[in-house]
From TrEMBL, chain A:
Protein name per its UniProtKB record: Peptidoglycan glycosyltransferase MrdB
Recorded catalytic activity of this chain's protein: [GlcNAc-(1->4)-Mur2Ac(oyl-L-Ala-gamma-D-Glu-L-Lys-D-Ala-D-Ala)](n)-di-trans,octa-cis-undecaprenyl diphosphate + beta-D-GlcNAc-(1->4)-Mur2Ac(oyl-L-Ala-gamma-D-Glu-L-Lys-D-Ala-D-Ala)-di-trans,octa-cis-undecaprenyl diphosphate = [GlcNAc-(1->4)-Mur2Ac(oyl-L-Ala-gamma-D-Glu-L-Lys-D-Ala-D-Ala)](n+1)-di-trans,octa-cis-undecaprenyl diphosphate + di-trans,octa-cis-undecaprenyl diphosphate + H(+)
Record gene name: rodA
Pathway: Cell wall biogenesis; peptidoglycan biosynthesis
Listed transmembrane segments: 27-46, 52-71, 83-102, 147-162, 168-184, 191-209, 279-300, 312-339, 345-366
Source organism of this protein record: Corallincola platygyrae
From TrEMBL, chain B:
Protein family membership: Belongs to the transpeptidase family. MrdA subfamily.
Name the record gives this protein: Peptidoglycan D,D-transpeptidase MrdA
Cofactors named for this entry: Zn(2+)
An annotated Gene Ontology molecular function: serine-type D-Ala-D-Ala carboxypeptidase activity
Domain called Penicillin-binding protein transpeptidase: residue spans: 272-611
Binding residues for Zn(2+): D355, D370, H376, C389
InterPro entries the record matches: Beta-lactam/transpept, Beta-lactam/transpept-like, PBP_dimer, PBP_dimer_sf, PCN-bd_Tpept, Penicillin-binding_protein_2
Organism field: Corallincola platygyrae
Gene transcribed to yield this protein: mrdA
Upper lineage: Bacteria, Pseudomonadati, Pseudomonadota, Gammaproteobacteria, Alteromonadales
Annotated HAMAP family: MrdA_transpept
Function of the protein: Catalyzes cross-linking of the peptidoglycan cell wall.
Keywords linked to the UniProt accession: Carboxypeptidase, Cell inner membrane, Cell membrane, Cell shape, Cell wall biogenesis/degradation, Hydrolase, Membrane, Metal-binding, Peptidoglycan synthesis, Protease, Transmembrane, Transmembrane helix, Zinc
Length: 375, 627
């Protein structure tokens, strides 16, 4: 259904001016709607301050430009860049650990003199790029050896970022790599084995690799009421905000939890709580529908891609996008422990948004450069 | 395995493989989205009311508003206790940029001591956020004006006007009204036990003594609430609703402030107590205990130095002598003794007893001396009361025995709480065999009975008891409980407090009242009466009895010489009486410590008060309360 339905649509849209500009209209509309929702909620959560909204508009503008620029590049040329970008990225991650700038108790930034730079953002695209390129060289489904190398390629940056420590990003990056391997056709048995290995790894993670504050987050997640004023405060206030929104919400700019500042990090990681408080379950369903629309559209683009590399890359980008959504909403509503993952394209903030938009640019490029690829 | 391997790229197979995997992914995505939706449905629909409540608990605070304390007036509507705004300088640390600098700047403007500054800075460290903290208490009007002019320089600094109790008559009414002061831990415990904690949420002061304490329930009122919305730091954003407090009820006392002032002035410089009661209902017209002190000191928190001075003063000003001072009643109880003797057929009014100047019971080797060394000669009941013959009563007491005396006197309220509406009260002591056994583990001796016969020995009384027992005489048996409260304000009007009666004293022969009352009339109005000099020119008829109480025992053969004795060992002057003789209105009891004889030192005070009351235009003391 997915494949056959979209084939005709792609053929029609190739005629349009948008197609020639390498823009996928349905995807763009989905993204713009999300951005508009985001700006509305930021305006409310930021205490009706216009400056905040203007700054976010600027960032979104930059994001859109980046997306457009990336969309113009032939996706097959990315294959050439996969290895050098990945290598430099890993080198920079090592550099961050050695000379990185400490902010908020974690080493995430590399000071290049004229600007601060977060190499992990580059890795969000470099890892799927690298893994997709690596496995797509051979016929699919990949051999066990290739899968093994692919797994190592995923694990390396993941561990380096987890060490910074940035649990959220390392989670996203490992997911993006694993998605490539899954979409490439890794056997179910191997996937089962892999899952078991992760389960076995959990105690090791808990006792040897996690920082105290990370353990605290997990403990708080399991029982937020145990420390209502300390680390449980975020999640308790967030659940109160969501729950008190009810079916229809308290109305735009009328959420008491956000307007009276009981909710922490209202316009960044916890913006979903503000949204659900003010727009209720009905608003939430609409928002999730937009996300689902973007994901479906993205998977369609991936399925229609002609080269295996493009398919894997596109599919990984889309599924990683969903991981953002799921992890963010899951943590804000108390299903998952608090990890620093923003609600994509809605949360205030630039860095990860620009990376996401670059990803969507790749999707558009994959979709609109099909004609130019030899069949 | 699941799939067959293909040697080289099989585009179609790869595409199909991808599509399958993508479909699996999409199904998982939709499943996970449903999981999210299910959880959100649970939060927003199933647990909606729980979270709505918690959200409101977050943002809505109830701020209690203290009710205004009820005012206290005298019987004629003169204000005795009011509420005045007291200004204090308060500061919200969160609203001030540089706390230390602001305090220093304020100290330049207003006389804030270093001690006050340090105390404030200390307390600011531990206070709740956005709470106003007092920096300087009790600003005078000039200081308020100085600050108001400079207020723009001090954001976050406020002048708070709090209604605070003020007693315009100062030390004149201290022991009647008592005072309010800051609620302490013990008060709090009592309030909690009464289940009244919520009502006192905003209240700072509570009645500590006197009327203020006894009628705390009436005076306090009902707390109000302001429902406000606060943000996460506790800062008030807006007021949602207000429930106004209900002010306490205003009280009207039986006290006549002019009579009170007169009594206060009469005891100026002495130690003692005066009680004036309305004979017709037991209303307390005046009640003075001297020396007194300014209750306003306690309202603002008395300094420990001042308090120690009051506490350690030899004059014991903190004691309410009118209700707590226990004095030997001395000869003031002779009418009661005479009445008992008539009831028991020991004597008739005209029965005469020989007084050689002493009484010696048979087979006792001790003489009990009369105050008149050379004796009164032949004495009947009238003579014995008018001239206060001791020997006569020694013999009556001897013949009556302590059991009958004790039983009878208890009916007049001796040794019992008078029931006045003030908590600070002593019972005095009406001795009996059982009491002495319990108290000293000793048998009762004849000598004890004989001392009791003239109101000495183990018998002690409070001025309020004496007044109450006199009122029973004035009413020929009717027993009104002394009441300070006359009426109080309710929402529908003024409600009078009904007179409180105890079982009356019923005589076996009602006719026995008359001769004793006639004799009491003689005390004041017959030429031989001990108070005749004082009352001879009165335009009304009255009844009374003087008393002179020994404070130390005088040996049998020793002479009482006022000059030689330490001031504090001199006799107490006592007086009880009422006027007018028929249809009595005012009852008085007077006790002046170490003043000497009752006829010369207590009766004149009673005369002055009776004069005022009988005339209402007599000389009033100069007194202007500070307003």
């Amino acid at each position: 259904m997915l494949g056959s339905g979209s084939q005709t649509q792609g053929a029609q849209s190739k005629q349009s001016i948008w197609f020639r500009m390498h823009i996928d209209m349905p995807l763009l509309i989905g993204l713009l709607v999300l951005m508009a929702v985001g700006l509305m909620v930021i305006y409310s959560a930021g205490g009706q301050e216009k400056a905040l909204v203007i700054r976010q508009v600027t960032r979104l503008g930059i994001g859109l430009i980046v997306m457009l620029v990336v969309a113009q590049i032939n996706p097959m040329s990315y294959q050439r860049w996969a290895l050098p970008v990945f290598t430099v990225g890993v080198a920079m991650l090592v550099g961050v650990l050695l000379f990185g700038h400490v902010g908020k108790g974690a080493q995430r930034w590399l000071d290049l003199g004229f600007m601060k730079f977060q190499p992990s953002e580059v890795m969000k695209l470099a890892v799927p790029l690298m893994v997709a390129w690596f496995v797509a060289r051979q016929p699919l489904p990949p051999r066990k050896r290739d899968l093994f190398v692919g797994a190592i390629l995923v694990l390396m940056p993941t561990l380096l970022i987890a060490k910074q420590p940035d649990l959220g990003t390392s989670l996203l990056i490992s997911a993006s790599g694993i998605f490539v391997l899954f979409l490439a056709g890794a056997s179910w048995r191997l996937i089962g084995f892999f899952g078991a290995a992760i389960a076995a790894f959990v105690p090791v993670l808990w006792f040897f690799l996690m920082h105290n504050y990370q353990r605290q987050r997990v403990l708080t997640f399991l029982n937020p009421e145990s420390d209502p004023l300390g680390s449980g405060y975020h999640i308790i206030q967030s659940k109160i905000a969501i729950g008190s929104g009810g079916l229809w919400g308290k109305g735009w700019c009328h959420g008491t939890q956000s307007q009276l500042e009981f909710l922490p990090e209202r316009h960044t990681d916890f913006i979903f709580a503000v949204f659900s408080e003010e727009f209720g379950l009905v608003g939430v369903l609409a928002l999730l529908a937009i996300y689902l629309f973007i994901i479906v559209r993205g998977l369609m683009i991936a399925a229609q891609a002609q080269a295996a590399f493009s398919r894997l890359l596109a599919g990984s980008i889309v599924l990683t996008f969903f991981v953002y959504v799921f992890v963010n909403i899951g943590m804000v509503s108390g299903l998952l422990p608090v990890v620093g993952v923003p609600l994509p394209l809605v949360s205030y903030g630039g860095t990860s948004m620009v990376t996401l938009m670059a990803g969507f640019g790749i999707l558009m490029a994959i979709h609109t450069h099909r004609r130019l690829i030899a069949t | 395995m699941m799939r067959r391997r293909v040697a080289i790229h099989d585009t179609h197979a790869e595409s199909r493989l991808f599509t399958r995997r993508a479909l699996v992914s999409l199904i998982v995505v939709v499943g996970m989205l449903l999981l999210l939706v299910f959880n959100l449905y649970h939060l927003q629909v199933k647990s909606f009311s729980t979270y709505q409540t918690r959200s409101n608990d977050n943002r809505i605070r109830l701020l209690p508003i203290a009710p205004n304390r009820g005012l206290i007036y005298d019987r004629n509507g003169v204000l005795l206790a009011e509420n005045r705004p007291v200004f204090s300088l308060e500061l919200v640390p969160e609203e001030v940029d540089d706390l230390g600098q602001t305090v220093a700047d304020l100290a330049e403007l207003l006389p804030i001591t270093l001690e006050e500054q340090e105390k404030f800075l200390e307390s600011s460290r531990f206070s709740r956020r956005f709470k106003r903290l007092p920096l300087k208490a009790r600003l005078n009007e000039e200081q308020v004006a100085i600050f108001s002019v400079n207020q723009h320089r001090f954001p976050g600094v406020y002048i708070e006007a709090r209604p605070t109790r003020y007693y315009p008559y100062g030390d004149v009414l201290t022991h009647v009204l008592g005072f309010v002061a800051k609620i302490n831990r013990k008060d709090l415990q009592r309030i909690e036990e009464a289940g009244d904690l919520a009502n006192y949420k905003a209240t700072r002061d509570i009645g500590k003594q006197g009327i203020e304490k006894y009628y705390e329930r009436f005076l306090h009122g009902q707390v109000g609430y302001r429902e406000v919305e606060v943000n996460n730091r506790g800062r008030i954003i807006r007021t949602l609703s207000v429930q106004e407090p209900v002010a306490g009820q205003d009280l009207f006392l039986n006290i006549d402030i002019n009579l009170q002032l007169l009594a206060h002035q009469a005891l100026a410089g002495s130690r003692g107590a005066i009680v004036a009661m309305d004979a017709r209902d037991g209303g307390v017209l005046a009640m003075v205990s001297a020396p007194s002190y300014d209750p306003n000191l306690f309202v603002h928190g008395i300094s420990s130095k001042d308090y120690r001075e009051l506490l350690e003063s030899k004059d014991r000003p903190l004691i309410n002598r009118a209700t707590q001072g226990t004095y030997p009643p001395a000869s003031t109880i002779k009418p009661h003794m005479a009445l008992l003797a008539l009831e028991e057929y020991i004597v008739t009014p005209s029965t005469r007893i020989w007084d050689p100047g002493w009484y010696q019971p048979p087979n006792v080797n001790r003489r009990f001396r009369d105050w008149k060394r050379w004796g009164h000669g032949w004495v009947d009941m009238y003579h014995a009361i008018e001239q206060s013959c001791d020997t006569y009563y020694y013999e009556l007491a001897h013949k009556l025995g302590i059991d009958k005396i004790s039983d009878f006197m208890t009916k007049f309220g001796w040794g019992e709480y008078s029931g006045i509406d003030i908590h600070e009260e002593s019972r005095g002591n009406m001795p009996s065999r059982g009491w002495k056994r319990a108290r000293y583990n000793q048998p009762w001796y004849l000598g004890d009975t004989i001392s009791v016969g003239i109101g000495q020995g183990y018998w002690t009384t409070t001025p309020i008891q004496l007044a109450s027992a006199t009122a029973i005489f004035a009413n020929q048996g009717k027993h009104y409980v002394p009441r300070v409260l006359k009426s109080f304000q309710t929402s529908t009007g003024t409600l009078a407090v009904p007179a409180d009666e105890r079982p009356p004293v019923v005589l076996k022969q009602e006719k026995n009242w008359r001769p004793v009352i006639d004799a009491m009339y003689g005390v004041n109005h017959k030429i031989t009466g001990t108070a005749h000099k004082v009352f001879s020119d009165a335009w009304y008829e009255s009844a009374g009895k003087t008393g002179t109480a020994q404070v130390i025992g005088i040996a049998e053969d020793e002479e009482y010489d006022e000059e030689k004795i330490d001031e504090r060992h001199r006799d107490n002057a006592m007086y009880m009486g009422y006027a007018p003789l028929n249809d009595p209105r005012i009852v008085l009891s007077v006790a002046v410590e170490n003043a000497g004889g009752g006829s010369a030192n207590a009766a004149p005070i009673a005369r002055r008060l009776m004069d005022y009351y009988m005339n209402n235009t007599s000389l009033l003391p100069e007194f202007k309360p500070e307003f």
